[in-house]
Amino acid sequence: MHLRYRYRLYPNRPQRQALARAFGCARVVYNDAVAARRDAYRGGGQYPSSTLLQRRLITEAKHTPERAFLAEVSNIVLQQAVRDCDAAYRRFFEAVKAQGQPFVGHPRFRSRKENRQAIRLHTGGFSIRANGKLRLARIGDVPVRWSRDLPSTPSSVTVIRDAAGRYFASFVVEAGDETAPPAVNADGTEREIALDLGLNHFAVDQHGNGIANPRCLRRAERRLRKAQKAVSRKQRGSNNRAKARRRLARCHAKVADTRADWLHQQTTRLVRENQAIYVEDLAVRGLARTRLAKSVQDAAWGQFQRLLEEKARRQGRTVIAVSRFEPTSQVCSRCGRKDGPKALAIRTWTCAGCGATHERDTNAARNILALGRRERLNACGADVRPPVVAVGGEAGTHQPARA
User: Fold this and answer.
1) pTM of the prediction?
2) What was the pLDDT predicted at 177?
3) Which of 32, 196, 205, 339 is catalytic?
């Protein structure tokens, strides 16, 4: 299994200048490759191969006055830019042929005004020195903050400069088997947990235990507002505006890093303590277009589920996402009666069939647990979950026609 390990870099001023040249040259070659393929498409010809593009856009272009500056950076960086263009077109054509896959747009030109820049080097363009520094071709030995050991020899590295002006090295390494021992209860049964995601609490399990919502963005809103006002007061194109923009970017980076750290801690704990995890497949993209958009984006449910699935796959755990169309908040987890939709303000309700009083999120988590077990064990619905009783006009799900 291939994984990415990211570390902070601390280049000095000459190295930052050399990295800026490498970022710019790689961007120029990538844009030239995109333009060459677009011209071939419009002219009705065959797409040029990667080898032809490298010879035309790198080897021959260095001898022209317009592209003579390409000789100032490593040839490995420029060749990788052409390969990145090939990979972008490959993903685009695969998405066009596939049915039901997320939309992937046509490869676009990269702008020099983008705050995030990156270059990629393979084994011939970098090496890790005995003193712990990272040697990059035509750049030099860059100090690295090694926060953890690499599990194996990296096959490639991506050097990134983010909007806050920080530099990172992202290594691609081969990880071995990390399967963890089974997580079982005292009676020998597998430990399972079902999570109902929300905003008041980030998640509530089937036992009523809640995970507090960190609200990283909401807590930093005052500081972000102050930094944003400072940017808007500065004259466009001035150095003071650039400094204020970097201060704002650092504030946003701190929010993102705090959220990512919290998500990693929670997902690692859940995967370590449970053999099976059941969650609801929420329509985050649709919820992000409602009046709760800021809170939904701040919760980062999609990133949470992605981290759960990745870590569970590495450690031999099971993560099952229950369909978002299941009425988990409308069905009684005891008798299976469907009481219909309820406003978000209703946190507790009493079932009209069996008289049980439910806490909204805990009841939803219990339904998610039953549905997840049914999907995982391929069991009959009647053996795992009480039958759903249709009352009155509840048998159909069609909405009434509008006049």
Assistant:
1) 0.87
2) 76
3) 196
